[in-house]
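ok trying this again, last paste got cut off
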Amino acid sequence: MLRGVLMASGLVLLVGCSGAQPVAYTDPTETPAGPGLFSGSSGEVTVTIGPNSEQTAPASE
């Protein structure tokens, strides 16, 4: 019993002194800023009309 209490106390001290930093919370229902999987650096999804075409059509929201 005493050995378990000492081990638990040592573990708490070890974890408490580990220098952990808090993590910035982001709400999972919010869209993060910046480029995504289907958007480029502009943050907008663009669809190319042809294989070598200069024309692009912006995606509607």
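PB: full thing came through this time. The chain has a mean pLDDT of 75.
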